[in-house]
Write a structure and sequence with these properties.
Blueprint lengths: L19 H18 L6 E9 L2 E9 L2 E5 L10 H16 L4 H6 L3 E2 L7 E6 L8
Antiparallel strand pairs: 1-2, 1-5, 2-3, 4-5
Length: 132
């Protein structure tokens, strides 16, 4: 019998923390929501949303530092209900995979203070992926 040490490999992946999977899903959801909203405003950069009963609802969209849509503009605004609903849906799917507030913070969701006690966040869209 020999005293051989196991061969160490440097290819091993670091162990994921519990929030990693949710973080990645949240980042992907923000990217997809940005892609949907950029169909009408190519320079959309961010949005704010509230989460009620585990469902996100966009309340504003920003482009170049200015608000270009709010949920007050449902009937007369730039974004149609279908696109806003589509963006809400991809964010909802991402939230379903989230493991909690740590994942939201790790994904870059910034909590927004408000006087109504709502769970609200600002999200920034990453630059669009190059078209192939």
């Amino acid at each position: 019998m020999t005293n051989r040490k196991p061969i160490e490999t440097h290819d091993a992946q670091p162990e994921k923390k519990p929030y990693d999977h949710g973080r990645d899903a949240l980042r992907e959801g923000v990217r997809k929501a940005g892609d949907i909203l950029r169909e009408l405003v190519p320079n959309a950069t961010a949005a704010s949303l509230v989460i009620e009963d585990d469902h996100p609802r966009l309340i504003s969209v920003t482009a170049d530092g200015e608000i270009v849509w709010t949920d007050d503009d449902q009937d007369s605004g730039l974004f149609d209900y279908e696109r806003i609903g589509g963006a809400d849906a991809v964010l909802h799917q991402a939230l379903r995979l989230s493991t909690g507030p740590e994942a939201l913070r790790a994904a870059g969701w910034k909590p927004l203070e408000n006087d109504r006690g709502l769970e609200a966040y600002a999200i920034e869209f990453p630059p669009p992926l190059p078209k192939q």
